[in-house]
Amino acid sequence: MDSVLYGSLPKASSLTTGANFWTTKCRAHNYHASSYAPKASWHKWKFHKEYSVLRFRQSSLSHHYKGIGGGSTHQESNRRYVVKAASGQSFESEPQAFDQKSILDSVKNSLDAFYRFSRPHTVIGTALSIISVSLLAVEKLSDISPMFFTGVLEAVVAALFMNIYIVGLNQLSDVEIDKINKPYLPLASGEYSFGTGVTIVASFSVLSFWLCWIVGSWPLFWALFVSFVLGTAYSINVPLLRWKRFAVLAAMCILAVRAVIVQLAFFLHMQTHVYKRPAVFSRPLIFATAFMSFFSVVIALFKDIPDIEGDKIFGIQSFSVRLGQKRVFWICVSLLEIAYGVALMVGAASPCLWSKAITGAGHAVLASLLWYQAKSVDLNTKASITSFYMFIWKLFYAEYLLLPYVR
């Protein structure tokens, strides 16, 4: 009877302890049954009760383990559904958010690299100079018309394209030098490959001439063409060129573009092409050309002061290398102070009271700021010299804000 009853129970490994307990109880029952027959009915009732309890426990345990192991209890199914839904939502949304962030970061980094590649201080200087010189061609209030703004926009966009060509070509020619002097530039830092730089430079030069051809302005064409030739001769490393190696030739290139070409060509673009007037050289135009000649020489000299270390290594005989940083620094400051003194005299001789007041006060303030900043420069620190060089560009911008008031 013991073997029959034991065999009728489910063979679940989880009930081993229960099965041993049951075997012991059955043996005890047989012993007592043979010894005490009158108690057989009582033991039979007890046996059925214990058997029922064991079956109930086994069923509950089996049901519990099935639920844990992947069974289909309602509570566990709901729990798994909620977990799955939540995890599915997170796995679906997180990559999407990550992709959007990656795209935004990529666009931001690309714009930042191009911003540094275009040398923004030269871009701002080019745009301001063209706008300022164009205003010198305005003779009466009615000249400020849609035709004026169209002519200025054509000149600015074409010149900015050429500006990017010139500064980009300079970086392509100076990759190894810039790794020492300007490691933050995209070509020097490796953000741009050499092929990428060539593509950008070639594209912007073509765009500049293409826009000029559409506009059909000869003064604009000559401004771009001369800038293209001098910018190429200044930077490109081929026999008889790379004029930046020679201090005088380098200064003459910058002087010709910044002082002469920008003033005369863009003034004539507005005067002859936009307004259809005969070419004239007014008093304000002559002053602007003379003053910017001083300023262009200063920029040509000063730009090499922070770069003396790399120029020495690669044999660039700039004035800073030949004369020393301190001497060139004070030559630049003195030239600018002389230019401001001449501007004060020109302003004082103006027949217009408002021109006399604005140009006189403006140049006096700029001269004072220059001297104050120059006294605080630490010539032993590259960061201090570079900061002052950027300050000179700010004075350059300010001068173009004053030029339209010279009458």
UniProtKB/TrEMBL annotation:
It is a multi-pass membrane protein. One of its GO terms (cellular component) is chloroplast membrane. It is found in: Plastid, Chloroplast membrane. GO terms for molecular function: prenyltransferase activity. It comes from the Eukaryota. Keywords: Chloroplast, Membrane, Plastid, Transferase, Transit peptide, Transmembrane, Transmembrane helix. The chain crosses the membrane at residues 120-138, 150-172, 192-213, 220-240, 246-268, 280-302, 328-346, 353-374, 386-406. NCBIfam families: PRK12887.1. Belongs to the UbiA prenyltransferase family. This is Homogentisate phytyltransferase. It comes from Clitoria ternatea.
